[in-house]
Every structure is written in structure tokens, then in C-alpha cells.
């Protein structure tokens, strides 16, 4: 069996996905315009650049292609399998592994949806040239399908799924459905029910957590117990997630009432970014793993905090994005550090022997 590479070159694509407008009804024409914009940006501004810098893997934030899919925007999940197929072809064409999340209808919901067979993105080439034609031949069929299948927050049931698509082959090596949903997501996403699991890559055993999963130490520990080497966490963590809320529905004896939540606990502007970095640092240490986190980046006045990076025990943050705005950062990771860290701290060994309290 071939030995594993000692180094991994990771491109962190701290992108700012284009969100479709909130609407009561889906657009009658060109319903997937924002998907096309995000796909073309990924192709031209990220994959091409990451491949030119000889990155092995490019990691995107949560929601990087579809943007937010609540508030009448669930129709953006209808062509999810075609988004995955497009990413697979990109991974083949550019020989680079691709990681990100796709929001897709749950399996039972997919079976109930008789979506058009052909891709609405067939007109978008895998390289910038030639330019795309005006529209995919199947677009009219997709427009009719979206028009005839109005969505609600709870219909169809949606899952937030992380994917690892292998460069060169385009094969799906691993996937994971987000288990721990942030409070607003619970209105339109279904939590994953499958246990955390690792999958093999040429660089070692890999596992996923998605955004709010990172806040749960037991999730990382389950992956550590399975011998994980690299944990990848696509994230859409915004600067006002923990901000004081004016009101939130609270149930008292099954009756919804309005309640003020932590009104007096105002925190400094850097609170969210410091919290995210601290959680990531702690998780990489306690699991003795490489921890790759890619968060969305964008204008500060829209709540973006960025903070994407790679953390390792014994090394700390070994590289990443410098600010909160959108950028691409390539980080070299020395995987041999993990052996030294595990010999130094012996946290994983203690867990395996139940020598922890």
C-alpha cells in the first residue's frame, strides 16, 4: 500500500455567496440566476486560482452555492443533484478536491419530487472560455416545475450536507448531514440522524462537522474515537448570531409568549470571531487533529466575520484568511505534526483506555 503524503495544501475559499431575494413566490423566469452567479464565481475566481497554486483541496463555506434557502427560497434546492454533478466535473477537470455543503431535499422528499431530468446548468462550461450560451435547453421545463411546486418553510424537508469530492476522479469520498442546527435553521432544515463517521482520503482519515456542530465537543470526540486525522468544518457563522435579541417566541405551558433574551449581555464587536476561533483551537487540541474551518466572508455591515483557517495541536493556527472579507488563502499543512502531538499529549490514547474523567 502506498504511503500517505506528509503534506497537504489547502485552499480556503472564504467566499460571499450571492443570496436570492426573500420572496413569497419563486421567480417565474430564471429562478436559478443566483446559483449560476455563484457557480461561475466558484469556477473562475476560486477553482482556477486554487488549482494554479497547486492546492490539493479547496474548502468552501456552508451555503456557498445556494446562499440561504429559507423564507420562500427553498426552490433553490430543487436542482441540488445537478450542483453536485457540476462540482464533480470541476474536480475532474482541474484535478482538485472540492469540499462544501449542498442543501438538498431529504431522500424521502427527493422521491416525491419529479424534477426535470436534465441539468439547468448544462450551458455553463467547466472553463471560462467558451462563454456560456444564453440558457440551458431545459430551463423552460425547470421554470414550469418551480412555478408548479410552491414551497413552504417545512416543505420539502431539507438537509444540509457536506461533501468531499475527490480531485481527478470526481468521486464522492464522504458526506455528512448537519446534526446540530442553529435555532433559525430548525424552521426549514431537518437534522441529520446518521452518526458521525470518518472516510478515507489519500492524506488520512477525514471527517466533517458543519458550523454549529463545532460547538458540541462530543461530535469531535466521536470522530476522534474513529481515528480521524483531518476535520473539515464548512461554516456560515455571522457576527450577530449571539447578539441581544429584541424578542423570541418562548413556550410556557405550551403557549407561545414573547420574551426578552439576554438583553443586558452586550458583547464586544470581536466576540463572535473570538468565539469561533477559540472553539476551533480547542477542538483541534482535544482531538489531536488538523482542523480546517472555512467561514463565509463579506462586508462587515452585513455581519460577515470570516476567520477561516487551519489549526493544529503544537502549532496553533498555521494559516488562513487575514480578515472578514472574501478572499482565497492557501495553507501548507505538515501532517507529521499529528504523530508528535499525540505522543506529547496522549489525549486520544487516554480516551481509548478510558483513562479520562
Can you put this structure into words, describing what you see?
With 357 residues, the protein is an alpha/beta fold. The chain has a single domain (7-352), classed as Nitrilase/N-carbamoyl-D-aminoacid amidohydrolase, CATH 3.60.110. The protein contains eight helices and 14 strands. A six-stranded mixed β-sheet has the order 5-4-3-2-1-14. Strands 6-7-8-11-12-13 form a six-stranded mixed β-sheet, covered by helices on one side. The protein has a two-stranded antiparallel sheet with strand order 9-10. Helix 5 links the parallel strand 7 (204-208) and strand 8 (230-235). The longest helix is centred in the N-terminal third of the chain and has 20 residues, at 33-52. The relative contact order is 0.14.
Q: Which structural class do the helices and strands define?
A: alpha/beta
- Estimate what percentage of residues fall within beta strands: 15-25%
Low-confidence stretches: 246-260
What is the CATH top level name?
Alpha Beta
What is the domain total for the residues?
Answer: 1
- Based on the coordinates given, report the CATH architecture: 4-Layer Sandwich
How would a crystallographer describe the biggest sheet? 6 strands, mixed
> Globular, elongated, flat, extended or rod-shaped: what is the shape?
globular
Supply the number of helical segments: 8
Determine the oligomeric state from the structure: single chain
CATH topological fold name? Nitrilase/N-carbamoyl-D-aminoacid amidohydrolase
Helix-strand pattern: EHEHEHHEEEEHEEEHEEEEHH
Radius of gyration (CA) equals: 21 Å
Strand adjacency order, main sheet:
5-4-3-2-1-14
| CATH-level-4 superfamily name | Carbon-nitrogen hydrolase
Task: Report the mean per-residue pLDDT as an integer.
Answer: 90
Q: Count the strands?
A: 14
Amino acid at each position: 500500500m502506498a504511503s500517505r503524503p506528509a503534506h497537504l495544501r489547502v485552499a480556503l475559499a472564504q467566499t460571499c455567496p450571492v443570496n436570492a431575494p426573500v420572496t413569497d413566490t419563486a421567480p417565474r423566469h430564471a429562478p436559478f440566476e443566483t446559483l449560476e452567479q455563484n457557480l461561475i464565481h466558484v469556477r473562475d475566481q476560486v477553482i482556477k486560482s486554487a488549482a494554479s497554486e497547486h492546492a490539493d483541496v479547496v474548502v468552501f463555506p456552508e451555503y456557498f452555492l445556494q446562499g440561504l434557502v429559507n423564507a420562500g427560497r427553498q426552490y433553490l434546492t430543487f436542482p441540488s443533484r445537478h450542483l453536485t454533478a457540476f462540482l464533480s466535473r470541476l474536480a475532474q477537470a482541474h484535478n482538485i478536491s472540492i469540499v462544501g455543503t449542498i442543501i438538498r431535499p431529504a431522500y424521502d422528499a427527493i422521491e416525491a419530487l419529479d424534477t426535470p431530468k436534465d441539468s439547468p446548468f448544462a450551458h455553463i462550461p467547466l472553463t471560462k472560455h467558451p462563454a456560456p450560451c444564453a440558457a440551458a435547453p431545459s430551463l423552460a421545463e425547470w421554470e414550469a416545475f418551480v412555478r408548479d411546486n410552491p414551497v413552504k418553510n417545512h416543505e420539502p424537508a431539507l438537509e444540509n450536507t457536506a461533501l468531499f469530492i475527490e480531485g481527478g476522479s470526481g468521486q464522492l469520498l464522504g458526506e455528512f448531514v448537519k446534526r446540530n442546527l442553529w435555532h433559525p435553521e430548525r424552521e426549514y432544515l431537518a437534522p441529520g440522524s446518521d452518526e458521525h463517521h470518518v472516510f478515507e482520503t489519500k492524506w488520512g482519515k477525514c471527517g466533517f462537522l458543519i458550523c454549529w456542530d463545532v460547538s458540541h465537543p462530543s461530535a469531535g470526540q466521536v470522530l476522534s474515537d474513529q481515528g480521524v486525522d483531518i476535520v473539515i468544518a464548512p461554516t456560515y457563522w455571522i457576527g450577530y448570531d449571539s447578539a441581544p435579541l429584541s424578542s423570541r417566541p418562548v413556550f410556557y405551558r405550551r403557549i407561545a409568549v414573547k420574551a426578552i433574551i439576554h438583553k443586558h449581555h452586550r458583547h464586544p464587536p470581536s466576540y463572535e470571531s473570538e468565539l469561533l476561533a477559540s472553539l476551533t483551537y480547542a477542538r483541534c487540541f482535544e482531538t489531536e487533529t488538523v482542523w480546517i474551518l472555512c467561514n463565509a466572508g463579506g462586508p462587515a455591515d452585513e455581519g460577515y466575520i470570516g476567520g477561516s483557517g487551519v489549526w493544529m495541536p503544537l502549532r496553533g493556527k498555521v494559516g488562513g484568511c487575514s480578515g472578514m472579507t472574501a478572499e482565497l488563502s492557501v495553507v501548507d499543512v505538515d501532517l507529521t505534526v499529528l504523530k508528535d502531538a499525540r505522543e506529547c499529549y496522549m489525549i486520544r490514547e487516554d480516551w481509548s483506555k478510558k483513562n479520562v474523567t
